[in-house]
Amino acid sequence: MQFMSLAAVFFIIWWLSFVTVLPIGNKSHHETGAEIVSGTDPGSPVLPRIGFKILLATGVAIVVTALLFWGMSNETLHRYWNR
Prior knowledge:
With about 80 residues, this protein is mainly alpha-helical. It has helices at about 5-20, 30, 50-75, 75-80.
């Protein structure tokens, strides 16, 4: 597979895993009882931890992409699928 195809597949898997990971561990201002500043949405997260979520999504995307390409290059699976 070409490098750009690999990059495109990785990006799509990364984006899906990032969107999946975003709500993990979020507590809103309303849930924690924190002070709600005027103009702030009460449902917004107190501590979003975006950096951690980016790293988590990257790890998940690396594993899923590696499994996908392993499955595509495995001769035993090719013989099974092409029966």
